[in-house]
Design brief:
The complex is a heterodimer of chains A (250) and B (271).
Chain A: E1 5-14, E2 17-26, H1 33-43, E3 63-66, E4 69-72, E5 87-90, E6 97-99, E7 102-103, H2 106-112, H3 134-143, H4 151-155, H5 157-160, H6 170-181, H7 191-196, H8 208-212, H9 219-236, H10 238-245
Parallel strand pairs in A: 1-5
Antiparallel strand pairs in A: 1-2, 3-4, 3-5, 6-7
Chain B: H1 29-51, E1 56-57, E2 60-61, H2 99-106, H3 109-120, H4 149-169, E3 172-174, E4 180-182, H5 186-202, H6 206-214, H7 223-236, H8 239-261
Antiparallel strand pairs in B: 1-2, 3-4
The chains are: A alpha+beta (250), B mainly alpha (271).
């Protein structure tokens, strides 16, 4: 059972400044945080800005910080929160604030353009098509579950605390790079870019990105660490380099 | 807006300082537990590794001292220390071995993330403020050396084979007539469980997973590699759990042999 009312402290403001504002509303069983925000909009303050779309955890629009934890508001049940104290709602700290709970995440899309796109190897068949087995497709397929909510970017301390936007592309874009790099028909080499331009060495494997991913993608174990290991092959492992120089390894 | 234009002033909520967070959960418990667990283990393993005695009891050999290269009549190369062993350092056979598992665990991908949080607060925990502004990641010396993890992995795999040999020896007890007889003691079970847990941790290593097949985009048509990759991936899913359980048990295994050798504990024979 959840109480009949709950108090929310919601960040109101823009890039120039702001403050938390308190709202007390009636709630009912099954409500999620986004429902509460909509009720506040409808009943108390229609100037409250919030971005949302699907309300089903698939569009990634309503990413915010609930009680200090990056989460999708539409996937956070009120019944799972301690409602004896006010619930804090604030925008993702990592990105520039537009207004209230809405941030500007466009940096992610611009940075994505700097990643080499898929470059296919020669076709396997005369009709210009490729042959691949399901088990080889499964690995990059995991990364296609990403809904680009950017919660992983928000929680990553390299971006969140150290603001290294010009040196590090963040977990979401490393997942995207892994998706391309592990594609069975891809022939591009992104390892040099990963090391020098995209700053994979800044990741210190705290696994916070994996923890917050609403799609439960194993970001660190299945994307970032495999990419780090490929980088070791290419740049740091003398035996692998020797084997490659002797033609013993492709 | 350019990347450089995303400055802290535009965040609009708060600055950054150590421990700054609006998280309600006890976020300090996890890094605190890692700190206590790792620190306690490092203190114990340093002490036990430098003792140089009470590491054998009957057919049992402490995993901290395995393989015993020099040190006792049963050692691979004899009892006398090698000529190049430094005079200033108290002689202990563990000195020749412990650097391998220590290096393997120190550069372990799971452990790196854990001790960066627990010992360096970088960050203290997810979405919790840090104490310092500068950050180099693993791009520069000394953390660049974390990339040698795979070499420690190769050595750690060899150590697992040695530990398996220890289990075999732990099955043969010398009777009153001086003959070797098959048997099982509690110590045999302790040592067997130790190698099982260490193997589960070692064979789930991220670097081994990469070497087995992760470096390839296509595993179809390579059944052996695919099977190895699937096995390492299966163990890798619980890498953190294997890390801690094997760490605790390897410490206990040394303690068991040590206390039996000191006469504090009795090793009960099952068979």
């Amino acid at each position: 059972m959840i109480p009949s009312t709950a108090t929310f402290l919601i960040w109101r403001g823009d890039a120039q400044g702001g403050a938390f504002q308190e709202y007390r509303i009636g709630i009912s069983e099954g409500m999620v945080v986004l429902d509460a925000v909509h009720r506040i909009q409808a009943e108390q303050d229609n100037t409250l800005a919030v971005r949302w779309n699907c309300k089903a955890g698939k569009c990634g629009s309503c990413a915010a910080e609930v009680n200090g934890r990056p989460r999708l508001m539409c996937m956070t049940r009120l019944g799972d929160l301690a409602l004896d104290r006010p619930v804090t709602l604030e925008p993702m700290r990592t990105f520039p604030l537009l207004r209230d709970l809405v941030t500007d995440v466009s940096w992610n899309f611009r940075t994505k353009l700097a990643i080499q796109p898929l470059r296919t190897r020669p076709a396997d068949a005369p009709d210009g098509t490729w042959r691949m087995m399901q088990r080889d497709v499964d690995r990059p397929q995991e990364f296609r579950k990403c809904i680009e909510c950017f919660l992983c970017q928000d929680v990553c301390h390299v971006l969140r605390d150290h603001r290294l936007f010009d040196r590090y592309i963040g977990p979401r874009l490393l997942v995207y790079t892994a998706q391309l790099e592990m594609n069975p028909i891809d022939a591009a080499d992104r390892l040099g870019d990963l090391k020098d331009l995209h700053g994979i060495g800044y990741c210190n494997i705290t696994k916070c990105c994996t923890t917050v991913c609403p799609e439960e993608i194993k970001i660190t174990d299945n994307a970032i660490i495999p990419l780090k290991e490929r980088l070791v092959d290419a740049f740091y492992d003398p035996l692998t380099r020797l084997a490659r120089a002797l033609g013993l390894r492709g | 807006m350019s990347a450089a234009a995303i400055s802290r002033s535009q965040v609009g909520v708060d600055g950054v300082r150590l421990g700054l967070t609006r998280r309600r959960d006890p976020w300090w418990v996890q890094p605190g537990a890692v700190f206590v667990g790792l620190a306690a283990f490092v203190v114990y393993v340093t002490w036990a590794g430098l003792q140089g005695r009470y590491y054998r009891f009957g057919p049992y050999l402490s995993p901290f001292y395995s393989p015993e290269l020099w040190g006792s009549p049963e050692a691979w190369f004899g009892a006398a220390p090698p000529w190049w062993y430094p005079q200033w350092l108290r002689f202990s056979p563990a000195v020749f071995i412990l650097w391998i598992p220590a290096g393997f665990r120190l550069t372990c991908y799971y452990n790196r993330g854990a001790y960066y949080k627990a010992f360096w607060a970088d960050p203290p925990n997810c979405a919790v403020g840090e104490p310092r502004k500068s950050y180099w990641g693993e791009n520069y010396f000394p953390l660049l050396l974390q990339n040698i993890h795979r070499y420690f992995m190769y050595l750690a795999v060899l150590l697992v084979l040695v530990l398996l040999d220890d289990v075999w020896h732990a099955l043969w007890f010398t009777n009153a007539a001086g003959h070797l007889r098959f048997g099982i003691g509690v110590g045999t079970l302790v040592i067997t469980l130790d190698v099982a847990l260490v193997a589960a941790y070692t064979f789930g290593c991220h670097s081994l997973r990469h070497v087995c097949g992760g470096r390839l985009d296509c595993l179809a048509g390579r059944p052996v590699r695919a099977a190895l990759y699937d096995c390492t991936s299966g163990l890798n899913r619980r890498h953190m759990a294997w890390f801690w359980v094997s760490l605790a048990w390897v410490g206990f295994s040394d303690l068991y042999v040590r206390l039996c050798a000191m006469g504090v504990w009795t090793d009960w024979r099952i068979l």
